[in-house]
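anyone seen this seq b4? input:
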Amino acid sequence: MTKRKLPPGIMPRGHRWRIDTFYKGVRIRECCATPEMAETNLRKIQTLIDEGRYLEKRRQPKETLQEFSERYLDWCKDIKQKSYTSKEKRIKLIVRRVGAETLLSKIDLAALEKYQAERLSSAGERKEHVKPATVNREIACLKHLFSKAVEWKILDSNPLRGAKLFKETGRRLRYLTPEECKALLDASSPTMKQVVMLALHTGMRRGEILSLTWDGVNLREGFIELVDQKNGERSTIPLNRKAVETMQSIPRRLDSKYLFPGKTPDKPFYDLKRQFEKAVSAANLDGVTFHVLRHTCASHLVMSGVDLATVKEIMRHKTIEMTLRYAHLSPEHKKSAIATLESALTPKKEKKENKARIA
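predicted toks r here
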């Protein structure tokens, strides 16, 4: 019986057959169970090389969504992202719904649109249908995860780059009236009352208040100095009399640098959601989250006649567009601006006659 002649580059190795050869400048290395399988695989690989698809196939990552998401979240935590807690929650939800063992290379626009549709028809934590805005925040997290996969050379391109978000319906800006503020404060525990007072009278965010340290507080001059942990930017928060009195009422612990220490003195208190929701419920308020307190501060500044440029500085908005959300609350600045036209469009002769008539 004539021994079968195999193509160059296929050779026995123990109980297996090894392909180790070059074809059009590309090295091919692979182990197979039989010589026939090795020859078949070699022909397939040569065809892929001829069609220009072999290197593309080899570059497909073997990393699963679960594995890469863990690396991604570790990076988010290392750079101390402000939104880490909410991002972690969203990413874990996505991994659970898409599938922990799903390869990154298998997730494309079709898989994303399927997720969007299923998510929109599902129920959230409060047994209500998930809103488009919620799904959009989740997709934004997933798109950024894939952007990092490209940046870290795991993927050649972001398959979700062209993903479309749902249209979000405009909602009325929720802020508290003075009566609602009083009801919330009356329903709050002593510590919660201090936190709420600071939020209402400074416009600070929840995380900023809970991470406040005494070395950044200057009660004599009446300001707080904040340092952004992510980019190192410094901000000065002015304090009014109510804010100063609130901070003076906070007992200063010698074993902690924080105004609101956590269970261990070296860490700040981080979770007040349950306490806040309990106070909101006791005050019979609807649609109130902690961020509504920041809206309340900005809204009442505008309604009190403070110009939008100053409100932008106090609230530390990155762009004036963020401040313009409150412009409708104070139409007076538009009235005063348009009133200048009355004088500007009046002829000089008529102006003199009017002045003489008044005199």
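The chain has a mean pLDDT of 83. The first strand starts at residue 10 and ends at 13. kinda curious what u guys think
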